[in-house]
Every structure is written in structure tokens, then in C-alpha cells.
Specification:
homodimer, alpha/beta, Rossmann fold, Dihydrodipicolinate Reductase, domain 2, 15 strands, elongated
Chain lengths: 428, 428
């Protein structure tokens, strides 16, 4: 039985789960791959408790030391962040070692450099764990859609936000309460910005869109809105419309380019998107031939992410043992073609929540602005029993492209009766 | 640019779609794989119309001739059936040619022989298209779950049955009408037995279960029930219970072995299974670490199946061009271990529909039989306005294992007031 020796850098939730799966599923892995995986070194800046160090592994505090070790064949990066992990991946590839990473931020920002470096050393980078945890969506896009042209993809890519939205809906609580509960439950960080303001979903979307549509896409070019502004009144309003709210990352080919964004959507309560609850993730792919496909599963957590890391390790170990290790043609990261962002996004319906100091004539004035910007009102509601000085008004409008809505919002936000800026949600 | 020459045997819907995708997506395929696919020969017993023959390909009427051709590197089998396709696959492998097939019946019945032959010639068999058309579920099971131990899988694997059930529900029509409409729409064969009696789903389940749980499983050992007995009264009764009916293929590890079957289930109307409508398929996987995953998409049709065939072709072509073509370790088809079928399946809820000639005391007599077989009644309903000589009675019972229900059914079916045997559905 051939042995492949693994070094794990960053021994947090995912790193520990990876080591645990390798130990507990050793026989299964051998049967599936014909290779025995062995963790020989683990590394974290703060020394790891002896009881936590995998049997037979050395515990290190410097990743540079791990990199220089003779007894590591594959490097697993689960420390997160960008600076050190970038140096680590560069170093590993330059030392001739394949790597597996769960770091979407690193790949969204430095994927071009890293995949090119991997090609120049003819080594693979495993990164299935970087997007949607346990859902093997990158393999699906890379391999299975080779026979089809993708037109669109969208999905729920951030478990923390989805957990918060689900809690707000199921329990009628407000955003702050749901966030603090998510933090207590370990589903949100002490600083939750990255998750709730949409950057995490944006980084993942960037990777997905590049692979699906084959080209470069700078992560900062993706318009990104989070869920921080969503309140219990919006959830109730959505319910009256037989809908619910989800943070959706989407990319769609249009005649003028890619219509791409991360933003909250109002979705039909009976839709599959609405059925994605708690920390789960889902990705929808729409292809010319395959029609709509949907992939659903746990988006985060040590076990699901660790299992994705191990699935990459098994593939690399099998190729390593067979002497056929090679770089992969990671579509979208090796072309120099740039993806064009759509000038004119496709018209969609919109939901606007205005928080106003009540006075006569508000609806008339708002309706006039909407009309003069070419928008047709679909419905107007008012939150029952809300105080006069902080009244919530809800407008839904018929499909219109985003620049028109933004134009109207600029005017509405300047009205003296507005207590805070309009909340804008896309209607599916 | 390296060229890989493809010969397609069986030029029906799937074969034609495959050729069409190869022609229309030629540039995309080249960009993704670095290889140019070229259809050089197509073959069907009845001569193919000249207009349908792909540009540059020869049209043959004998697959033996195609096999002997020098200008075919990979053989695609889309003719269906077992006898000829078995000979074709054997012949192709013995001629040193990799094959791609969409034939689940062939693999369910002769997979052991064929995958062993493939190993002895160190050649791959692509078979993604054989289960769930466009959903890349076999790749997912083969590769991505290498890091996890699967506990259960279940899914909707037959598009025809699902289309009929969806039509019955949405339009309130009876089985025969829905079947004849499905036939008109091209979703059911003139002889629909294989689809509506569950064998198609059973063959696919056999392949999935073998790969997921790693062992041999003779296809005849899977208890299989179809949807032929389901009537509009059952759909209405399900609706009163806030449920709907789906034909579900399932396999679950229990302490005493694998609990495996194809049968109609009564599922919650709000569940993801219920959301799978028309000819779509879905597969749920439950793993130790990954939790529940779900994969959804078109289960049949030339385009989806053709795209799956092409995804296999691209993988094979890439390896062929790189000189690294090799057999795959297809889990479950190369072990000699037999999967144990559970002696005592897990207790589940059941729905029983009795069609009776009404007379006093029926419910009491049925209730007594159920009680004496250890079953607790959950609800009893009667179809409103049904004629006295053909009254529908519906019982739901609390979870109990199948042998107990079967014992009770034997007694009930013998009662003189029974017009036809009890219809039994599993409740999820």
C-alpha cells in the first residue's frame, strides 16, 4: 500500500476535522483510492495541545518549517487570511508539493498567480473546499459541464447570513438578536462583517463565475450588498407577499455581458431557494442543454469542509501514487480573457422599503418619482401599527433594470420625510 | 490541437444529441479540454437519413463494422437493450477502445463483467449518462465522497413516472389519462412497463447503491413497486394529508444491512422531494460528515443525456491525448464483497388504500387486523361521494417495519368486501 504524507497548516476547525477524517476513515480511503493517507505534521502559530496532535504527527509552530520538511508530500492550507497563505502556497508549489486549500479569499484575489504557478510546476491545487463546503460544485463545473454551455448560475453561498435570515423568519426576531444568537451558536464570527455584508459570498461567486464562464473577473467589480439592513418588518412584509428573503449570489450571461451581483432577493416561499434553510448552501446552474440543475448541502462547518479537503487529498494522493500528478486546466483562471460586466442588467422586479416620518402625500410623491423613472408599481403596503415617526412603507415594482431603480432611489432618499435610506431587494 | 475520433452506435435521440453537442460546442470543448472531438462514424440498424449524418462522418448499419474501423478512437453506445450492447462493449474493450454508455440496464446486469474487462485492458468506461441524465451524480459519488462514509441515498430516478404523478396532481386526472398524455408528449414509450413499474429506477438504484456502499448487489434483489395502481383518489387523499406522491428509489444502511427498495412514497408537500416536478430527477445523499446533500436536474431527454455523454467523452479524450488513459476503480463493481440486504427494514409510516364494496363493520374488521399485527392507526378517511360498490378507504399507520404490514395485507386482501388488493405507500 502506497503512503502519502500530509502536512496541515492552520489547525482550527477545518484542519482538525481534516486530520480526524483521515484517521477515522483510513480504511475507506484506502479502499476507494488504493492509497494510505498519513498526517505527518500539523502547524499552528500557537502551540497545539498534545492531545489534539494526530497520532504519529509532529506539531510545529512555523509553516516555513513544515514546508521544508522531508516527510510532507502534500500541503493542506486551512489557516485562512491572505498574506501568509499566499506565501505558503507559493512556497509549497516552488518546493514541488501539491496543495489543497479551503481559502476562497486567497483564490478570489490571487487565483491567477497561483494557478499559473501551479501550471509552471505541473502541480495541482485542490480547492473544492473553498466554495460551498461539502457541495462538490467546483468539480461539477470543471468536469461535468464540459459538454454544455452555462448561461447562468445563482446560489446561497454564505451559511451565516442564511442562518440569520432563517432565524428571523422562523422566530420573528430582529437582525441584531439573530446575529447575536448566530454568534453564540458558533455560526458567526465575533466580527461578522465578512459574512453579513456579502464579501464571503462575493469571493465564492467570483470563483464560480470565472470557472463557469471562463475568464478573469476582479472580485471588486462584483456589486455586493449584505443583509445588515434587513429588519423584522421586511420579513413580515415578505410573508404577506408569500415570499421570504435570501442572500443570493448570481451571475447571468446577457447580450451586453455578465450580470453579476450579491444581494438579498425576495423569493417565492414555495421555491427551492426558500427551502434552503439554516447554514445550508445551494447552487443552481442553468445550461443550454442541461437545463436547470441544483446542488444542495452543508456550506460550512469543520466536517463538511474537512470532507471536501479530504476528497481533494484522495484525488491528489491517487495521482501521486500512480506517478501521474499534473496541473489542472482550471477554466477561467488560466485564460487572459476578461469577463465583460453587463452595461444593462436584465430587468427584474424590485421591493423597496421606505422608513418615513409620516405626513400626508408621501405615497403620491414616491409614486411620482417611480413613474417618472419608468417604473410601474405592483403593490403598496404599510406596516400595521408602526409609529408615525418611523413608519415602514413597502413598494413592489414591475421588472426594470437596476440603473433606473438607483436613479429613483437617489431622489427618494433626499426627501425630508425619509428617516433612513431605502432598502432595496430584488424580486425573483 | 489533438483530435479524438468518436464512433456513435445507436443513432436515436441521445446519439443524435451527442453528435449535435460535439458539433455545436466544438470550440468550448477545445478550450476546456485542449482536444478536438470529431464524430467519424455513426451506426444504426436502419440506414440514417443523409441529412442527419454528422458532417464528415460515415454512416454504417453494422456496429461490428464500426468496431473494426481504424478511424474510431472512442465508442459511444446509445442503442439500449442488453444483448447487442454487451457484445459491443466487450468488443470495443478487446479492440483497446474506451467506451461511453448511457445504458443502465446493461450495467445493472453486466457491470461486474464489463468493469473487470475494462480493468484487464486498462481502459475507462464512461457511464455518467446511465443514471439521472444530466445530474453528475456518479462522479459525485465516485470522487467527492471519498472523504466521507455514506449512510443513505434516495431519489427520484424515473422522469416518466414523475411526469405522470405531477400531471395527476396538477390536473386532477387519472393514471391512464396521464400516461397517454405522457406518451403523446414523448415522455413515455409505447410500452411504458419499464418506467412505470419501477424497473428503470431499480436499475439506476442498483448502480448508485453499489457505488455508494461498495459491493455487489443483484438487481433482482431490490424490492420494486411502480405507480400503475395509483389513482386520482390517492392523489386527493394525499392532498388532504398535505402530501403528494413520488416514486422513490432508496437505499439505507441499517444495523442488519441495506434497506433498499423502489416504491411510491407519500411525501410532505413542502419537502424538496415534492418540489421535483415533471421529468426532473433528484438524488439525496446522506453522509456522516457531509450531512444531507441534494442534486437536482433533468433526468432524461436527448440534450441532458447527450451532455452527460459528452462530459465523459471530454474526460477520456483529455486522458487519451495526454497518453494517460487508464481504467477507473469503479467502487462497488470491482469488489467481490456482497451487500447484505437488511432482514429487518427500519420502521416507517404507511398509507393503505382499500377499495371495498361497502357494508357495515369494515373499518372495525380492518382495524382489528392492523391492531393484531402490531400497527397503530394514525388516521382513517373515506373518499367523499364514492359509490357504495367501489368505496375508497384510506388508513395511515404509525411507523412499523414492512413484514408486519405485509402480514396484515395478506389477511385484509382475503376479505370478501375487498374489490381489489390494498395499495400500499410508504410515508416519509
Amino acid at each position: 500500500m502506497k503512503q502519502v504524507r500530509v502536512g496541515i497548516v492552520g489547525f482550527g476547525t477545518v484542519g482538525r476535522a481534516t486530520a480526524d477524517i483521515i484517521a477515522k476513515h483510513s480504511e475507506l480511503i484506502q479502499r476507494r483510492s488504493g492509497v494510505k493517507l498519513l498526517v505527518t505534521a500539523v502547524c499552528r502559530r500557537q502551540a497545539i495541545k498534545t492531545a489534539d496532535v494526530p497520532h504519529g504527527a509532529r506539531s510545529l509552530t512555523s509553516w516555513k518549517e513544515l514546508l521544508a520538511s522531508d516527510d510532507v508530500d502534500v500541503v493542506v492550507e486551512t489557516m485562512g487570511g491572505v498574506d501568509h497563505s499566499l506565501q505558503l502556497l507559493r512556497g509549497a508549489l516552488e518546493h514541488g508539493k501539491p496543495v489543497v486549500t479551503a481559502n476562497k479569499k486567497l483564490l478570489a484575489e490571487h487565483g491567477d498567480e497561483l494557478f499559473a504557478l501551479a501550471v509552471s510546476h505541473n502541480l495541482p491545487i485542490g480547492f473544492e473546499a473553498s466554495v460551498a463546503g461539502g457541495i462538490p460544485i467546483l468539480r461539477v463545473i470543471q468536469e461535468s459541464t464540459a459538454g454544455d454551455r452555462l448561461r447562468a448560475l445563482h446560489g446561497i453561498l454564505n451559511g451565516t447570513s442564511n442562518y440569520i435570515l432563517t432565524q428571523m423568519e422562523n422566530r420573528g426576531i430582529d437582525f441584531d438578536e439573530a446575529l447575536s444568537e448566530a454568534q453564540k451558536a458558533g455560526y458567526a464570527e465575533a466580527d461578522p462583517t465578512f459574512d453579513i455584508d456579502g464579501q464571503d459570498a462575493r469571493d465564492k461567486l467570483c470563483i464560480l463565475a470565472r470557472m463557469a464562464f471562463g475568464g478573469r473577473l476582479a472580485v471588486e467589480r462584483i456589486p455586493t450588498y449584505g443583509i445588515r439592513q434587513i429588519r423584522a418588518v421586511d420579513i413580515r412584509s415578505a410573508q404577506r407577499l408569500k415570499r421570504t428573503i435570501r442572500l443570493v449570489a448570481s451571475a447571468e450571461q446577457t447580450d451586453s455581458g455578465l450580470d453579476v451581483s450579491v444581494r438579498p432577493w425576495l423569493v417565492d416561499r414555495r421555491s427551492m431557494l426558500a427551502k434552503v434553510e439554516d447554514v445550508n448552501n445551494a447552487v443552481f446552474l442553468v445550461g443550454d442543454r442541461l437545463g436547470t440543475q441544483m446542488f444542495y448541502g452543508r456550506g460550512a462547518g469543520g466536517d463538511a469542509t474537512g470532507a471536501a479537503v479530504v476528497s481533494d487529498l484522495v484525488e491528489i494522493a491517487r495521482d501521486l501514487a500512480a506517478g501521474r500528478l499534473s496541473a489542472k486546466n482550471v477554466v477561467g483562471f488560466l485564460d487572459h480573457q476578461e469577463l465583460t460586466i453587463a452595461r444593462e442588467p436584465r430587468p427584474v422586479g424590485w421591493y423597496l422599503r421606505l422608513t418615513v416620518h409620516d405626513q400626508p402625500g408621501i405615497i403620491a410623491r414616491v409614486a411620482e418619482v417611480l413613474a417618472s423613472n419608468g417604473m410601474n408599481i405592483d403593490s403598496v403596503q404599510q406596516e400595521p401599527h408602526s409609529p408615525k415617526e418611523r413608519l415602514s412603507l413597502f413598494f413592489t415594482v414591475e421588472p426594470v433594470s437596476e440603473p433606473k431603480v438607483r436613479g429613483a432611489l437617489e431622489i427618494i432618499n433626499a426627501f425630508d420625510f425619509m428617516v433612513e435610506p431605502v432598502l432595496l431587494l430584488r424580486i425573483e
